[in-house]
Amino acid sequence: MLELQTPLAMHQQTTDWSSLAESLGKQFAASETDADESDLFVADNIAKLKSAGLIAAGVPLELGGGGASYTDLCTVLRILGRHCSSTALAFSMHVHQVAIPAWRWRNQNAPVDGLLRRVAAEQSILLSSGGSDWLQSSGIAVKSEGGFLVTARKVFASGAPAANLLMTSAIYEDPELGPTVLHFAVPMNAQGVAIEPTWQSMGMRGTGSHDVVLSNVFVPDAAITLRREQGKWHFIFHLISMVAIPLIYSVYVGIAEAARDRAVRLVANHRTDEHLCYRVGGLDNKLMAAQLALQHMISTAVASQPSFETTNQIMTGRALAAKAVLNVADLAMDIAGGSAFYRKLGLEKLFRDLQGARYHPLREEAQRKLSGQLALGWDMSSL
Length: 383
Known about the structure:
CATH class of the largest domain: Mainly Alpha
Order of helices and strands: HHHHHEHEEEEEEEHHHHH
């Protein structure tokens, strides 16, 4: 269970994570706007998160971190999302890469304390390539003396300009086992690692989600943390689904809350339009649907163990949350009317940023397939 802590970690915390996130979010808003208008990475905001101690918030107290609970981390990301979409989303990619080994340390006694201590001591920022890889992975690993040479292009690497370690994978054609996915971490300053500035997007423009290109990067055997069959579900992906997805969608629900509030402020003086009440009420219904779906994901993550059943619950919540926040985006624009089309009012930015909710795994078609397979009693061991 995600909230399981040792006695030391159960000591009263002195950090008010929600208040800290609220304070920082208000400071970040102006920088976020500048980044959006210029396709710039929100580097200053990430630096301030580091200065405030949030980079190590999810590291257990025993390992030198902030000891924030899983629900604390979701709340922080939701609050940041209300103020600064790109900052929150880029940060969520680091947060979930910390939360996953923290879960393994607490629940499996996994030897990941070195990584977590490094995050705490060095304020290292972890970069995920999981969304672009998923079960299939991408890139080629060729056996070399003492390790592998990896060549790959990892897209949608949110937060790349600030990252210290890339948490990624590549495919090795094992002569006995066939296509095998190797998981490993690569220092961003390693020879052969480069960031290609490709991120010019509709929304989330400040996330710095550039391509990370690996050209014959040497990965020693000792750095390989997992080997798995390509394209098959593995425990680690049930864990990733359980931990990462609620954190990521906390950001989108926060953005939807901001869009709702902004739309209501824009029309608050239209007191003679009775039909407007019904439209705003409909907007609040959609927002509550997103909030309830998110709460279901978070409570599932806290109370469950990684499994197909847990993944199904999380991904169903993800599909419902994504649909609901996109509905909020549409309704907010409709309620605000033509004024919403003006960039200076900020609603069109929130609309654009919310479109990113469509693209994280599992997308709805894949989620419905998985749910149907479970409902029909298919043999999941072959998937």
